[in-house]
Amino acid sequence: MTRVYVCGHRNPDTDSIAAAIGYAELKNRVDGETAEYVPVRLGSVNAQTDWLLRRSGAPLPVHLPHAYLRVRDVMRTSFPVARRDDPVRSVGLLMASEQMDLVPIVDDDGVLSGLLTERTLARRYIRESREASRLDVPTPVGSIVEVLGGELLAGDAAVEIRGRVWVQAMHSTANSRVQPGDVVVIGNRPRATEAALAHGIALLVLSNGARPTARVLQLAAEQGTCVVQSPLDSYVTSRMVTLSEPCRAFAEDDPLTVGRNDLVRDIADQIKDVHYRAVIAVDQDGRPIGVVTRSDLVSPTPRRVLLVDHGERAQSVPGIEEAEIVEILDHHHIGSIETKLPVTAIFDPVGSTCTLIVERFRQAGCEPAASTATMLLGAIVSDTVLLTSPTTTERDHAAAAYLESLLSLDARSFGREMFEDSSDVADVSASDLIRRDLKEYELDNGRTLTVSQIETVGRAVFTRSDELRDAAERRRGRHGDVLFAVMLTDILAQHTRLLVTGSEALAERAFGLPVVDGAIELAGVMSRKKQVAPGLLAAASG
To answer: To bridge 488 with a disulfide, which of 180, 208, 223, 497 should be the other Cys (CB 3.0-4.6 Å)?
Structure first.
């Protein structure tokens, strides 16, 4: 089943996390037969969201570090595997039946030890066309019998043979190059057979179903030669003998390996550099779990994402340009996200993305789970600042009222409890505070402008203005922002102190007020989306 990651923006706030949880639940209920929707987060949650997750009982969404294709997204998980001692012919048949150019070789513990490729087998046959066939590594007689579909007439199946393989198609002569330990394939020729035994061979194979004479069996027993009957003709029998060798004899002993979470973009060149044009994915114990070939990298299916609460590329998951965006649901302005295919994209001016999700639950005739409903209510009162923000609409009030009746809660009382219990930031470092809820905006010149917001009950955090501004300036310097602004918002007093680093002139143009000691006092300002970001972006482009 196709997996779709439902994700909010980086440095997620409560609305972003709740929207991912809520929309994933709804999508799974109305579209669960065609796709699996997984809520994810792009960073650590802030204190308020953590409080709401614990209060609601909703699980913390998994962290999605990027949307780049991983090995696990493209690897074949169904593939043949051979043991080191399996006959070459058995492995070759596996290749043919599975239409694979290679087969991983594992040891007795299932750990990858090598790789058998068609190219290696082809080279073996080319070599045998120029010199005598031979068994390169000790090969059990039992394996030879199995591959031939023959019968062991004398000797022990556990005996291992290593030597050249001869076909006695002509009369034996005193000039025969057969040596002790070799293998001789011969038909129904008793005198030639006795002559071959005189050379001290290790294995006698009688082709075409020939039966040995009593004299041949006696000579074989006297010198410890194994005797096997083959139903095949002499040529095919000799080929089958060499194909009885353990596959480890031909295996690449240092195959290219990767982990299941390695990036496809990082392994593509490695695959091109090896002659078998493939890589084996292994687990932490070295056992093969997947195969990636060059053909798997031709137009692979990208990871699929559904974006909520943002439409800016700079705010989205790293690698968004390589992902397939299936839908966008947001309540901000249309940002810089680009899609490869037509998608449903909603940018609806309400106070919270979760308001849009509540409306969609009701349109579908579905009721959210209690934990999800609690998350949605908390997000609405968070993003609308207890339904008092200038961004608040009648639709936000209606969504909150619906959730109030569903949960038997008062939205404003619940919201005050949430803000009060999660607004103590005395023990949080300045650098962490400014990163908790920040959004980056791309400008026409390719540079960025960043606005962070810290919502509090009371003004205790205002006393840390210098410390927070210093942290903002350090962060701005590292990222090259034109301006980095920090909103210190007292939600009860409905007042924001805007700390400014970078282009103070830009901030002064945006609000028509002077920057004093690195700050602008903004009475009645609560919303980054409606009251701060638009002015700064307009001033930056003016």
So the answer is: 497
68-122, pLDDT tens digit by residue?
Answer: 999 999 999 999 999 999 998 889 888 888 888 899 999 999 999 999 988 888 8
H/E/C letters for each residue in 288-344? EEEEEEHHHHCCCCCCEEEEECCCCHHHCCCCHHHCEEEEEEECCCCCCCCCCCCCE
Q: Say which DSSP state 458 is in.
A: S
Domain containing 165: what range? 138-244
Distance of CA 125 to the CA centre of its chain: 39
**Same domain for 307 and 406?**
yes
- Does the pLDDT value for residue 213 go beyond 60? yes
Q: Which residue from 180, 232, 181, 224 is spatially nearest to 206, judged by alpha carbons?
A: 232
Whether 121 and 253 share a structural domain: yes
> CA-to-CA distance for 123 and 46, rounded, in angstroms?
61
CA distance to 29, 89, 111, 295, 515, per residue, from 84 (Å) = 48, 13, 10, 27, 74
- For residues 361 and 444, state if they share a domain: no
Closest alpha carbon to 118 in 255, 248, 250:
250
Query: What pLDDT sits at residue 172?
Result: 55
Q: Tell me: do 201 and 155 sit in the same domain.
A: yes
